[in-house]
Amino acid sequence: MALTETELALAQAAIAGDRQALSQLLQRRGDYLYRTAYLYVGTQADALDVIQEATTKAVSAVRHLREPGYFYTWFTRILIRQAQAVYARRQRETSVAAVPERVAPATDPVVALDLGQALAKLGANYRQVLDLFYYQDLSITDISGVLGIPEATVKTRLRRGRAALRDVLGGDYNG
Amino acid sequence: MDERQTRAKVHEMIDEIPVPTAAVNAAIGRGVAAAGKKRHWGKRLVLAAAVLVIGTAGAAAVNPAVGQAVSNAAWLGEFYLLHGGQNPARAFHVNGTATALAEQVTSHGLTVRLVEAYYSGKEIGITGEVTGMTHAQIYKNGEDELGLDNQITPLPGVEADSLDFAPTKTGYRFTETYRITRAKAPTSVRLPITITHINGVRGDWRFKLNFRQKPAVTHELSGNYTLRPGVTLAPLQAVKYSQGAELRFSLKFDQEQYLDAAITDIRGADGHSLLDLSNGFDTKNGVNSLPLKQLPNAGQSYRVRLDYQLKTQKRGHTVVREIVLVPKATGGK
């Protein structure tokens, strides 16, 4: 993800220990970060928790970042790892309490509601793969690396995920 | 619809997911603030650890646990001091709580060696190193971020907490901490660890570690103390672990009036602080858990320090109150 000149300067300041700069950097791409987290965990409350926890980790770890230009890639990785941890935590809680998975109420756009519903039906495993492939633009090999699952499993989840989204995607799509 | 069109459409739809911008910005702000508190502890800890390392340099000869750990990996002391971050691994390294390990697994050319571990209170810490990595593997994407995908095979009540690391010429040294999420820390824990990826290298590094500690003793507490108008402290439990203790309490403050309020110290009549600065402050579901060096004495009064900041003021203030945290009649269970 390419950084603007302003963002690059902010990233350099953040690495040098400027927390205000780090905060500004994250807020500038807040929409992207929220959607990434949301697609993993499926609820607004959990997505905000993920962003908060990932930010805390980033504050102490940013000094290790050597190349400011990789700031968002680097932070996204922290975010995804955090989202996986929160999701796993919720899964354990859900399996005990038998609470159905919640979806944050979509507001206005019909398309968002449709996508939200479709994604909710999918389950997190498929949401994660779709997010990484279509939103993060990662290759199947990279997704396999990030999630720690075989490439064949990534392909299967991607195929099933796309099939489940067929109604929302419309057209003559064949999963 | 071809692949490119599908990608564009899914991307477009994801971009339609409504974003609560104010809440996102607030979450980022809370995340930065939370790191600030931890760093505060960390700074004090670096100094304390430095004193401990210097002060116990000769102790290794008389303390078998420390001696064994040092002989396992000579780099431990320096690593903890410079790269240990905010976890208490270095304090447990020098006081002998940590035990030496000699677990090693090699897969796909990379060796993961675990050299030390501890289980104290609700925290498990494991220190180790990865060797056999190329320069390109270490500095993947130009960053020295360790991509250590750790999986704890389904183990209810344990979750990975933090990872501190430092690159070496052939890999990394790291300390990973795990946290018991149950209300009570169990006496024994069997922790299976499976590492599947290290900086993009896929492999199979598996460890099964057993940890034990003496059963915790819990004292139920009661009472409400007004530390200043609008700030109430309610001690809930005092828990004694094999090493150290923990005070659980609720601190409520008027959100309209106060920007922040926190208990920052507890001292006995002798002037010594009860706080264990080697460990972090934890808040969950409104209950604060404060690590202590030892259980507060029953019936003894302690000076509890509250740091607070009013919304109308730019500077913080301090107030100290004398409180009997554990009443005499309270019995452990």
Automatic annotation (TrEMBL), chain A:
InterPro entries: RNA_pol_sigma-70-like (IPR039425), RNA_pol_sigma-70_dom (IPR014284), RNA_pol_sigma70_r2 (IPR007627), RNA_pol_sigma70_r4_t2 (IPR013249), RNA_pol_sigma_r2 (IPR013325), RNA_pol_sigma_r3/r4-like (IPR013324), WH-like_DNA-bd_sf (IPR036388)
Source superkingdom: Bacteria
Record keyword Metal-binding present: no
UniProt cross-references to Pfam families, sorted A to Z: Sigma70_r2 (PF04542), Sigma70_r4_2 (PF08281)
Ranges of residues in domain RNA polymerase sigma-70 region: 27-92
Keyword Chaperone: no
Keywords (A to Z) from UniProt: Sigma factor, Transcription, Transcription regulation
Start and end residues of each RNA polymerase sigma factor 70 region 4 type domain: 114-165
Family: Belongs to the sigma-70 factor family. ECF subfamily.
PANTHER family tied to this protein: RNA POLYMERASE ECF-TYPE SIGMA FACTO, RNA POLYMERASE SIGMA FACTOR
Protein name stated in the entry: Sigma-70 family RNA polymerase sigma factor
Native organism taxonomy: Bacteria, Bacillati, Bacillota, Bacilli, Lactobacillales
TrEMBL record, chain B:
InterPro entries linked to this entry: DUF4179
Domain DUF4179: 37-129
Alphabetic keyword roster: Membrane, Transmembrane, Transmembrane helix
Transmembrane segments: 45-62
Name of the protein this chain belongs to: DUF4179 domain-containing protein
Species, as recorded: Lacticaseibacillus jixianensis
